[in-house]
Amino acid sequence: MELPSNLSPDEASPEWMNKGDNAWQLTAATLVGLQSIPGLVILYGSMVKKKWAINSAFMAFYAFAMVLVCWVGWGFRMSFGDKLVFFLGKPAVALDEKFLLGRAFLGYFPTATMVFFQSVFAAITLVLIAGALLGRMNFRAWILFVPLWFTFSYTIAAFSIWCPEGWLAKLGVIDFAGGFVIHLSAGVSGFTAAFWVGPRAQKDRDSFPPNNIILMLAGAGLLWMGWSGFNGGATFSASTVSALAVLNTHVCTATSLLTWLLLDSFFFGKPSVLGAIQGMITGLVCITPASGVVQCWAAILMGIISGSVPWYTMMVLQKKVKLLKLVDDPMAIFHTHAIAGALGGILTGFFAVPKLCRLFYMVPDWEKYLGLAYGLQNGRTSAGFKQMGIQLAAMLFVIVLNIVMTSIICWFIRLIVPLRLSDEELEIGDDTVHGEQAFALWHDGERFVTSKHNKVYDTDDFSYVGSKSMGEVQMV
């Protein structure tokens, strides 16, 4: 077939593009997207009380969609574009063909690939924040919260740490795949927002059993396996470093899960499924900032630490520290993401291998990206302590940024709509918020009435047979 005279095969496959890198990057982005939908949608929807299954899953579903639209509208350029100030890029759209089909600022693939890859990172951050707000946040307030927090918090952290023009990036902070930008941010913001929104109904705080543990494990499994794209894609190439990042990710996660199970078994007598999932998440989070720049034995040590320190803060300190008892965090986002993310960032500053850092950052500078352990070993102690100082500075910056911005955003939203559902709505759950119920299981020969439209359906063929009062089930 002859091409039109104004087209060339080189336009679709230019010389600068590496097809393997492009294919891997798109695959990695899809894996990260699957962590949110369906991964966290299933995990949240099954990990909560059945009356909150729809609302919890839908908070994640909505956040994913809203962030992607905001990302191409202004977020990508604010996070990775031309510098506006030292911590933020200039707002601009990422919709133009010439911009999207040109080479990305990092990697041998089109900018469109980079835009998609980074969009799912931004989206999962908001989905993680939702975990701290389940079971009581007004959905209309959540509709406003997502674009506001994304615009005024996420883009600042992303530009500062990941963009080559960002001030922390220039200092030499190591955050391989988002321990600070995503997990510490989500953990601190989720905890802060939970403080402003207020707690669940007391009855839900006293008893909040999962409605489906098998599905909960399925959602957790999607989250775990999807992390291959999360950390493996952070190299922006199908390289040896990406292979190491994937291996380290899974080794650390498995170690963390087993550590948590051992602690549960020793102190409480039984290995807990919920505990295993929490240990899995803390391992995934902790290794994220370090995955491609540490050795595999260090990943195992990080797994032991990530399976024990958050376990202690959740199982022991949670019951003793007044602030932790005050703030209602149903998915323990503070422990699994804020604590584990901070641990990961600090341990990265300790275990980062200079050679691996040079392979990842492609810089010959020996004054940057030097883990303290190797600084002590090589007689370059000052450089090692400097790296630890940079890691701590980045951690402090992200914590302060998210406490301040999340508080301002919650205060602003509260002027428009209530942050928390009413007590009556909290009593009913999904039915009053969405007019839908997650589980509609009926016996043969019964008729079910949908609560929203008061319509009766025959359960044999789902034909409409009339109207009844709300919630009534009639025998045929």
UniProtKB/TrEMBL annotation:
<feature type="transmembrane region" description="Helical">
    <location>
        <begin position="390"/>
        <end position="413"/>
    </location>
</feature>
<dbReference type="InterPro" id="IPR002229">
    <property type="entry name" value="RhesusRHD"/>
</dbReference>
<comment type="similarity">
    <text>Belongs to the ammonia transporter channel (TC 1.A.11.2) family.</text>
</comment>
<feature type="transmembrane region" description="Helical">
    <location>
        <begin position="174"/>
        <end position="198"/>
    </location>
</feature>
<dbReference type="InterPro" id="IPR018047">
    <property type="entry name" value="Ammonium_transpt_CS"/>
</dbReference>
<feature type="transmembrane region" description="Helical">
    <location>
        <begin position="338"/>
        <end position="361"/>
    </location>
</feature>
<feature type="transmembrane region" description="Helical">
    <location>
        <begin position="115"/>
        <end position="134"/>
    </location>
</feature>
<dbReference type="Pfam" id="PF00909">
    <property type="entry name" value="Ammonium_transp"/>
</dbReference>
<dbReference type="InterPro" id="IPR001905">
    <property type="entry name" value="Ammonium_transpt"/>
</dbReference>
<keyword id="KW-1133">Transmembrane helix</keyword>
<feature type="transmembrane region" description="Helical">
    <location>
        <begin position="141"/>
        <end position="162"/>
    </location>
</feature>
<feature type="transmembrane region" description="Helical">
    <location>
        <begin position="52"/>
        <end position="74"/>
    </location>
</feature>
<keyword id="KW-0813">Transport</keyword>
<dbReference type="GO" id="GO:0008519">
    <property type="term" value="F:ammonium channel activity"/>
</dbReference>
<feature type="transmembrane region" description="Helical">
    <location>
        <begin position="23"/>
        <end position="45"/>
    </location>
</feature>
<feature type="domain" description="Ammonium transporter AmtB-like">
    <location>
        <begin position="23"/>
        <end position="439"/>
    </location>
</feature>
<dbReference type="GO" id="GO:0005886">
    <property type="term" value="C:plasma membrane"/>
</dbReference>
<protein>
    <recommendedName>
        <fullName>Ammonium transporter</fullName>
    </recommendedName>
</protein>
<feature type="transmembrane region" description="Helical">
    <location>
        <begin position="236"/>
        <end position="261"/>
    </location>
</feature>
<dbReference type="InterPro" id="IPR029020">
    <property type="entry name" value="Ammonium/urea_transptr"/>
</dbReference>
<keyword id="KW-0924">Ammonia transport</keyword>
<dbReference type="InterPro" id="IPR024041">
    <property type="entry name" value="NH4_transpt_AmtB-like_dom"/>
</dbReference>
<keyword id="KW-0472">Membrane</keyword>
<keyword id="KW-0812">Transmembrane</keyword>
<feature type="transmembrane region" description="Helical">
    <location>
        <begin position="210"/>
        <end position="230"/>
    </location>
</feature>
